[in-house]
Structure formats: C-alpha cells, structure tokens
Fold this protein.
Amino acid sequence: MRERQERKSSGGKWLVLMLLLMMGAGLWLFLGQEQESEAQETPPVQAVMAPEIAAGGVKVLVLNYHKIDNKHHSLSVLPADFESQLKYLSDHGYHSISPDELFEGLAGTGALPENPVLITFDDGYKDNYTTAFPLLKKYGFKATIFVVTSFLGQKSQYFTWEQAREMEKEGISIQSHTATHRSMTDLSDEQLRAELVESKKKAEEELGHPVEYMAYPTGTYNLHIAEMVKEAGYKAAFTIKYGNVDEASNIYALERVPVFHTANTNKDFLERIRYTPIFEKFGWTKS
Ligand SMILES: [Zn+2]
C-alpha cells in the first residue's frame, strides 16, 4: 500500500516536472522568436526598452567611438547610425556629462543627472569635427575627445588645434590620448613619462586649461602604468575594459562600452547598452 502511494506521488512529481519543462520550452521558443524578429529589423534604433536605472549609487554609461564615417570599418560608425544612437539616448532620458562631472560624481563632491552618459571618442579624427560635432550639437550632447597630441595639425586625417578650440566652446572636452599613441605596456618608464607629461603639456598650451583625463592607446595598461598616470597629474584614465562605471571602478582604469560598426550596428549598440548592467549583476564583467 505504502509502495503504491509512493509510486503515485512520484508519478505526480514527474507530471509537475514535465509541465515545468514544457513551460520552459515554450518560454524558450517565445524568446527565441522575439530575438529572431528583432534581428530582422533594420535600423534606426528602436525604442525597445527603457534604459536601466541604477538602484541607488553611481552608474555611468561611458560610450567609446573612434570614427564617424561611411567607410564600413569596424571603428567607423556610419553617420546615420551615430545619429540614431544619439536620438535613442535623447528619447530615453540620457543626460550627457563631462569628465569633470563624472569625476565629481564618483568622488561624491557633485551630483550626477539621471541616466548619465559620457560620450567619448579616441584619436581625434577629422570626422569627429566635420560629422560628429554637428550631430552632437543638434541633440544638445556634450562629448569628450581623447587626442594624440603630436597628430593634431600634423596629419591630415586628424582635426586641428584650432578646430579643437572651436569644439571646446560648444560642449566638447578635449583630453589626452598620449603624445604618439604607442601601446603603453611596450614602453620604458622614461618613455611612459614622456608620453604622459608631453601630451598633457602640449594640450594645455593649445587649449588654455588643465588637461586632467586620458585614455590608454589601444586600451593597454597595468597597475604600474596607472600609477605613472597619477604621478603625471591626471585625475582619471579610461580603458576599453567593457562595462559601466560605478563606485567599484578604479579611477585610473575606468570602463567603457565600445561602439563598433557591425552588420547590425544599432541592434548591437542597444544590446551593449541594455545588457551591460545585467552582465555586471551576474559578475560576468568587472573582476
Ligand atoms: Zn586610440
């Protein structure tokens, strides 16, 4: 008798398990279909989901671009895609901030707006001035450009110091991306110091204000390099380590979310900015 009851109850357990499995499979199919239909969508960026709002504490999205042009290279985001992304940020209540605002927000000496975004560009390409700058102005966004100080005014693919000064009058902050863009992990201490100090000095002379932020060329750095960045007088430095900036971030190794040109740039952009907080929650980024 007892044996039969047990068998009956174990049959019941199986039924429950089967139902759960079926529900799981249904959900999986549903989600799969949703993803597929999203993949078939074409740009512009769709208003699919409200941005993640940090539950207390500082959380800043730092975007990283390089070129805005029609070359279809991974570092070249199309102007139309760039505009869609700015429109998305604008429509979803993002507020652009300067590196000083980020620094003060992290230090607790200044308040950050809701949904803060720091829009950054590396290298100082001419299209940042001709193409990105007018679009940033159109949407009322601030941005930061990390320039290779020996390239400006010397190589034709980069904007000039004159153009840098013009942009600074309208919400663009120009900061350092070193003097010559060599990967910093390959340099001696003397070379490192020169890259950091000379680029800072040159940019300060040209721009007429302190230059206190830098981005590591090619993103490579280590703790020793970070220490030298601090010694050279910078307040913070940016990597290409994927993630959002928050109170747990190292001020000399700040995370960014790179935006690339892909087969579906805007869908990837959305996934990157939407899923970054989820990755972090599960400890998949930030070690
Ligand atoms: Zn670079």
The first helix runs from residue 2 to 40. The chain has one domain: 41-281. Residues 41-281 form a domain with the TIM Barrel fold (CATH 3.20.20.370). The pocket of zinc ion is lined by residues 122-123, 177, 181, 217 (CB under 6 Å).
